[in-house]
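Quarterly update from the structural biology core.
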Amino acid sequence: MHLAVERILTINPGSTSTKIGVFDNDRLVMEETLRHSTEQLAQFASITAQYEFRKSMIVDELQQHEIELSSLSAVCGRGGLLRPIAGGTYTVNESMLEDLREGYSGQHASNLGGILANEIATECKIPAYIVDPVVVDELQPIARVSGFKLLERHSIFHALNQKAVARRYALHTGKKYEDLRLIVTHMGGGITVGAHRHGEVIDVNNGLHGDGPFSPERAGTVPAGDLVDICFSGKYYRQEIMEMLVGKGGLTGYLGTNNAVEVEKRIAAGDGHAKEVYSAMAYQVAKEIGSAAAVLQGKVDAIILTGGLAYGKDFTAEIQGYVDWIADVVVYPGEDELQALAEGAIRVLTGEEEAKVYPSRQTNIEMEAEHIGSRV
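Predicted structure, tokenized:
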């Protein structure tokens, strides 16, 4: 008995590129990165205004590869900065499109993922999906308490890759993701460490500009009082401080580069300062893993290291040396977001799971009112 072939077009828009892939079930048929010059993008007043330009490039690329739109079963786009939602595969609906167009949680190229998927899917009369956007929020209530009454902890992390590698580990071990207790560490330009319990990420550091380990581009947790002093010193504008925390923080701030390969070359050449900073980053990642182990009460099936930094064998070995007493450490280097998007769509098309519905604005208003009321 042969399973029906589901052909999925996946779309992952970035600031200056659009990555696309075509999968027959989980087999990659075609993958391309479409580059967009600064001059091309400058003609558009907003990110969302770029969708027709990017859509045209996608369709042209598919034609060059002789892939007919009529052969597609579904289109799956990268989820953007939406309202906080549980993890899973979501059908693109009008409420989602409104939030993506307006940039409910911010303007970012990933907001185009759902819009582009919907535009192409509507023409083909097939479903459009998004999978595990960065705003996935499954935090347990106690994890939201920050210690500062005016601020609540928020869940913003590498949900797509974290959940994809967690499912991959479960498959490799013959278990269900929902039955496991895992610590998944995504290590790229930002670093997030998630405590996964029975299919939900019940605690995770804010990977945008919140807390956790410093990374190649982000400062992570810093001494709060000292930061306040700097903010009111009169030496810096608000934007300058934000850039020192996000974009020019971490390795970039200390060593002038966010390139881990370059840092490793400096270390190999005897640069003691580079070694100290790089080791400090591994040390902070390990401390965050230890915190996640406490969240899971020490009952951890595996610790997974993933993302671009996981290609560094010395770096991962340093982390492993701190935490392998907690559980076995498994390394899945890199991040295959197009594959993860395809897998999310396939789970729905094959009936393994049901597509979730993005809530209407009225539902969100009622949920937010209930959440606020529970804290009063």
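The CA atoms of residues 154 and 206 lie 6 Å apart.
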